[in-house]
Design a protein that fits this description.
Layout: H1 3-38, H2 40-63, H3 76-80, H4 84-94, H5 99-106, H6 110-124, H7 129-139
Helix pairs in contact: 4-6, 5-6, 6-7
Protein backbone atom coordinates (compact mmCIF):
# COMPACT_ATOMS: atom_id res chain seq x y z
CA UNK A 1 0.00 0.00 0.00
CA UNK A 2 1.24 3.40 -0.79
CA UNK A 3 0.92 6.31 1.66
CA UNK A 4 -1.53 7.96 -0.71
CA UNK A 5 -4.16 5.23 -0.18
CA UNK A 6 -4.05 5.61 3.62
CA UNK A 7 -4.98 9.28 3.54
CA UNK A 8 -8.43 8.80 1.93
CA UNK A 9 -9.13 5.91 4.31
CA UNK A 10 -8.46 8.09 7.37
CA UNK A 11 -10.65 10.82 5.96
CA UNK A 12 -13.48 8.30 5.53
CA UNK A 13 -13.00 7.03 9.09
CA UNK A 14 -13.09 10.58 10.46
CA UNK A 15 -16.23 11.43 8.49
CA UNK A 16 -18.04 8.29 9.70
CA UNK A 17 -16.87 8.94 13.28
CA UNK A 18 -18.13 12.50 13.18
CA UNK A 19 -21.49 11.39 11.75
CA UNK A 20 -21.84 8.72 14.45
CA UNK A 21 -20.97 11.26 17.14
CA UNK A 22 -23.53 13.73 15.84
CA UNK A 23 -26.12 10.96 15.68
CA UNK A 24 -25.39 9.87 19.27
CA UNK A 25 -25.63 13.47 20.49
CA UNK A 26 -28.94 13.87 18.66
CA UNK A 27 -30.35 10.72 20.26
CA UNK A 28 -29.22 11.89 23.72
CA UNK A 29 -30.89 15.25 23.10
CA UNK A 30 -34.14 13.50 22.12
CA UNK A 31 -33.94 11.26 25.18
CA UNK A 32 -33.45 14.31 27.41
CA UNK A 33 -36.49 16.02 25.88
CA UNK A 34 -38.58 12.87 26.40
CA UNK A 35 -37.46 12.75 30.03
CA UNK A 36 -38.39 16.39 30.53
CA UNK A 37 -41.80 15.82 28.96
CA UNK A 38 -42.51 12.73 31.08
CA UNK A 39 -41.26 14.08 34.44
CA UNK A 40 -41.41 17.88 34.41
CA UNK A 41 -42.57 18.26 38.03
CA UNK A 42 -39.75 16.09 39.40
CA UNK A 43 -37.16 18.01 37.42
CA UNK A 44 -38.49 21.37 38.61
CA UNK A 45 -38.54 20.11 42.21
CA UNK A 46 -34.95 18.93 41.81
CA UNK A 47 -33.84 22.29 40.44
CA UNK A 48 -35.72 24.11 43.23
CA UNK A 49 -34.15 21.85 45.88
CA UNK A 50 -30.66 22.44 44.48
CA UNK A 51 -31.24 26.20 44.45
CA UNK A 52 -32.49 26.14 48.07
CA UNK A 53 -29.53 24.02 49.13
CA UNK A 54 -27.07 26.41 47.49
CA UNK A 55 -28.81 29.43 49.04
CA UNK A 56 -28.78 27.76 52.48
CA UNK A 57 -25.09 26.94 52.24
CA UNK A 58 -24.28 30.48 51.14
CA UNK A 59 -26.34 31.97 54.00
CA UNK A 60 -24.75 29.64 56.54
CA UNK A 61 -21.28 30.69 55.47
CA UNK A 62 -22.22 34.38 55.58
CA UNK A 63 -24.14 34.35 58.87
CA UNK A 64 -22.00 32.01 60.94
CA UNK A 65 -18.56 33.17 59.89
CA UNK A 66 -16.55 34.07 62.94
CA UNK A 67 -14.01 36.83 62.75
CA UNK A 68 -10.49 35.61 63.32
CA UNK A 69 -9.45 36.14 66.90
CA UNK A 70 -6.46 38.39 67.17
CA UNK A 71 -3.74 37.13 69.46
CA UNK A 72 -3.45 38.97 72.73
CA UNK A 73 -0.45 41.25 73.03
CA UNK A 74 2.28 39.73 75.17
CA UNK A 75 1.80 40.53 78.82
CA UNK A 76 5.21 41.14 80.43
CA UNK A 77 3.76 40.55 83.90
CA UNK A 78 2.42 37.15 82.87
CA UNK A 79 5.73 36.10 81.36
CA UNK A 80 7.53 37.08 84.58
CA UNK A 81 5.66 34.35 86.45
CA UNK A 82 7.46 31.65 84.47
CA UNK A 83 11.12 30.71 84.48
CA UNK A 84 13.08 30.66 81.26
CA UNK A 85 13.07 26.85 81.25
CA UNK A 86 9.30 26.71 81.85
CA UNK A 87 8.77 29.01 78.88
CA UNK A 88 10.94 26.72 76.75
CA UNK A 89 8.93 23.70 77.87
CA UNK A 90 5.67 25.54 77.24
CA UNK A 91 6.77 26.51 73.73
CA UNK A 92 7.68 22.90 72.95
CA UNK A 93 4.37 21.73 74.44
CA UNK A 94 2.55 24.11 72.11
CA UNK A 95 4.52 22.63 69.20
CA UNK A 96 3.00 19.24 70.07
CA UNK A 97 6.12 17.58 71.47
CA UNK A 98 5.93 14.71 73.95
CA UNK A 99 7.74 14.71 77.30
CA UNK A 100 10.47 12.45 75.92
CA UNK A 101 11.00 14.67 72.87
CA UNK A 102 11.20 17.77 75.06
CA UNK A 103 13.63 16.02 77.41
CA UNK A 104 15.87 15.02 74.50
CA UNK A 105 15.81 18.51 73.02
CA UNK A 106 16.58 20.25 76.34
CA UNK A 107 19.01 17.51 77.42
CA UNK A 108 17.30 16.76 80.74
CA UNK A 109 15.50 13.73 82.10
CA UNK A 110 11.80 13.08 81.35
CA UNK A 111 11.08 13.35 85.08
CA UNK A 112 12.38 16.93 85.05
CA UNK A 113 10.03 17.72 82.19
CA UNK A 114 7.15 16.16 84.13
CA UNK A 115 7.97 18.49 87.03
CA UNK A 116 8.05 21.52 84.73
CA UNK A 117 4.74 20.52 83.15
CA UNK A 118 3.16 20.03 86.58
CA UNK A 119 4.30 23.52 87.66
CA UNK A 120 3.01 24.98 84.39
CA UNK A 121 -0.38 23.36 84.98
CA UNK A 122 -0.43 24.79 88.49
CA UNK A 123 0.56 28.31 87.40
CA UNK A 124 -1.87 28.32 84.47
CA UNK A 125 -4.73 26.66 86.35
CA UNK A 126 -4.98 23.85 83.82
CA UNK A 127 -5.53 20.12 84.04
CA UNK A 128 -4.50 19.13 80.53
CA UNK A 129 -1.86 20.18 78.03
CA UNK A 130 -4.40 21.71 75.68
CA UNK A 131 -5.86 23.80 78.49
CA UNK A 132 -2.40 24.98 79.48
CA UNK A 133 -1.53 25.95 75.91
CA UNK A 134 -4.81 27.81 75.41
CA UNK A 135 -4.43 29.63 78.72
CA UNK A 136 -0.84 30.61 77.88
CA UNK A 137 -1.99 31.96 74.52
CA UNK A 138 -4.78 33.92 76.20
CA UNK A 139 -2.24 35.50 78.52
CA UNK A 140 0.04 36.25 75.60
CA UNK A 141 2.89 34.22 77.01
CA UNK A 142 3.21 32.17 73.80
CA UNK A 143 1.80 32.55 70.30
Amino acid sequence: MSPFTLRPMWRTVLIYGALLGIGAAGLQWLQYHMLVREHPAEIYFLLFALACMALGAWLAVRLFRRPAAEPAPPDPAAADRFSKRELEVLTLLAAGRSNKEIARRLEVSPNTIKSHVARLFEKLGARRRTQAILRARELGVIR
